[in-house]
Model the fold of this input.
Amino acid sequence: MKEPKIKTRDLTLFYGEKMALNAISMDIPEKEVTAFIGPSGCGKSTFLRTLNRMNDLIPNVKITGEVLVDSLNIYDKQIDVVNLRKKVGMVFQKSNPFTKSIFENVAYGPKINGMNNKAKLEEIVESSLKKAFIWEEVKDRLHDSAMGLSGGQQQRMCIARALAVEPEIILMDEPASALDPISTAKIEELIFELKKSYTIVIVTHNMQQAARVSDVTAFFYLGELIEFGKTKKIFTTPDKKQTEEYITGRFG
Amino acid sequence: MDNSINNTGFVFTKESLRKKFRWSEFLSERIITGVAFLSITIIILIFFFVFRETLPIFKQKKEIVKVESVQKQEQYGGDENAQPTNASGQEQYGVITKDTMMTENQVVGEDTVIHGADEATVKSLLGKDWLPVSDRPRYGLIPLLVGTVKITLLAILFAAPIAILAALFSAAFAPPWMREIIKPAIELLAGFPSVVIGFFALMVMASFFQNIFGYDTRLNAFVGGVAMALAAIPIIYTITEDALTAVPRSYTEASLALGASRWQTALFVTLPAATPGIFAAVLLGVGRVFGETMIALMATGNAAMISVNPFESVRTLAATIGAEMAEVVFGDTHYSVLFLIGSLLFIFTFGLNALAEFYVKGKLVKRFQGK
Amino acid sequence: MNRKNRITGALFVGTTAFSAFLIIAVIIILLVVIIIGGKDTFSWKFLTSFPEDGMMKGGIFPAIYGTVLLVLIMSVAAVPFGTITAIYLTEYAKETSILAKTIRFAVRTLATVPSIIFGLFGLGFFIKFVGGGMDNMFLGGQLKWGQPNILWASLTMSLLTLPVVIVSVEEAIRTVPREMREASLALGATKWETIKRIVIPGSRSGIMTGTILAVSRGAGEVAPILFTGAAYYLATLPTSLSDQFMNLGYHIYIMATQSANVDQTLPIQFATTLVLLMLTFMLNLTAVIIRSRLRRKAK
Done:
């Protein structure tokens, strides 16, 4: 088996006095889709956000344990968080385009990295939008405001925006939860395509979605990692009773 | 998949993720934090410089300062006169004051007079006479203090009930469309320059009230108080309204569920729950009136006398500074006394603000969160 | 019992309504009286010509010019500093830190300090300390900066309007959604890049509201400039920062209280007041409209 892309070791997280994650250890494989499932408030989104240190922004968060990306502990004092986030991209639950044009949205990442060559920027924007399957829909209105796109289009544009920075890992926090079934299907198709080149971690509350798109699934409950394994196994013959109860819809 | 464009140009290695020092981050954070200190710095500087100018009153030996100030004044005066003058009434007025000041200053410039005047000054501060421009100047602050307190009381007496009731109306009773008109309208009143309100009081209100009440002195504490109420109403109204709308809905719903009517709920539940906020509103209104200068200058008559009759003229602390500072000699006793008045005003409003801030906030937190 | 209750209720609600309408009525009366008093004198010529016959006739151009110059210089000082302070309070300071609390308290204190105190401070600090110091250092004691002028008056006014800018900008910055900041940071932007490219452009309308409100406040305040630079009458417009200037509010005050013949110049006084009122009224109205749009957007 390949060396896992991300390894966490005893990752524990406190919001002030409240423990939100309890000693999570997990190996996330490279260029596959890993899904986190569990009832809301179980810590799956919190865990996702520890993987690119987005929790740093929240006051009173205390984290112990290790997160190793390519065997590098990203909580090491020597690590540059800004560069880390360039390698570990993120797509959020609610699509969050900037109030700028579609072009400016996608070119944002390359620009802050010092890319000013206009031709090169156009190239990056085009290829990113193509990778996110949205190029055909927006190519004639690249300079219109991104706010004018539909919810599903906005979310795919946000994915394109994340891709433009050339990450190796993409974290997706319930990327389709606010979308209609058709847009959701498009996103899922996109995820399937992206895993050829990227390591993808996706949080979802939709179990069918997890079963459809992921290779590996982790089930969280009350801040604990209950079960972690091949998606097929988790959804057919889970080891733990709690997992079985959750996926058969008996609670949550 | 086209993966050939790589714009970040580094791979996931220890080197590429090594902590980088970014000058722009470092500088921006330092500069922004530094600028944020400015507000605190200004407060401290105000304290320092306003107090500094009052110090000469309490010093005995200050001949050197005096002589310097005389020279300065001479230059200053000369410079003023060098400006193109116009033979208008105002110009003559200005020149005349300057001349009288010069002569007075030269008298004060003699050593013997200074000592006498200075010891007398400190004592006279508690006196009943405000006669700064006379042969034997007396700087009694009592009439100014009485005048200020009187006009503040009058203004708050008018402003507080009206503003609080109006806030209650727009927060509890008015239909939304009416609220959309009342709130911005009163916010606009807050934007009226006080010199405009002062002008309105001087030209219109004074005659209007004189016709009603038939008093002798056209400009008096009553007129000034009503005019100042116009300045205080928007403050009291806005903060009270905020306090009323901040009362948790569960409070009013509980009351309504018990069968109380809307007005009973507003009067017996919402209003009491918001009292700390309303108290703060009134305090800030007091602060506004206490330090208001232009309305006082224009509408109160500016006579420094001690009386309880609201239809007599008064001279407030702020108006005294406003009226006399422009015509005083830099550095002399009168100048320092005016700064002393400023210090008093500053301390008072600072105290009021601190009280409104800490006491009231503490109470509100206790009340709504049960701590 | 029930009936008595209902009557009391109606009376009570009636009283509150009366109070609200009384305030509105006074506002309307004030506006109407000043419009009627000033409308005959008010004309294009009144706005663009100099006073004549010892300010008994003529226009108020120098006062308008001086006021505009005052608020311009004031804004140059107050808007950047106010905006940066607001950025500090929203983006850098931790809500609970003592420093942030102290700065907030200082800002609120600044907002409640009587305007005449700013005048005293301008005199003691800018004119005597800074200006006098400059004269002693560079001009060998010759008097140039150590006396009232438009620069010191504008800077004094900028201290007074600083809290106005801070409060408006802070409110606007808070309407920039957290999601947008996160999106920017997740793309590898630094904090400063996020502020520069996302937060500041997103709060442009708030910075504009703050500037408008500050300008309106600065245009109407008289007490701080009484002895820091305003003049009764000047035959020429100010051409240097060390010149004195005329000002609309100060003009009203002087004309109404110290003019040789108050009654004769009454139309000019009303018209000047009308000009000042219209100026501040329109500025405030614009700010109120922008702000209510902003608030609706925030919801």
User: Anything to note?
Assistant: Chain C touches chain B through 108 residues (CB under 8 Å). The CA atoms of residues 216 and 280 of chain C lie 5 Å apart.
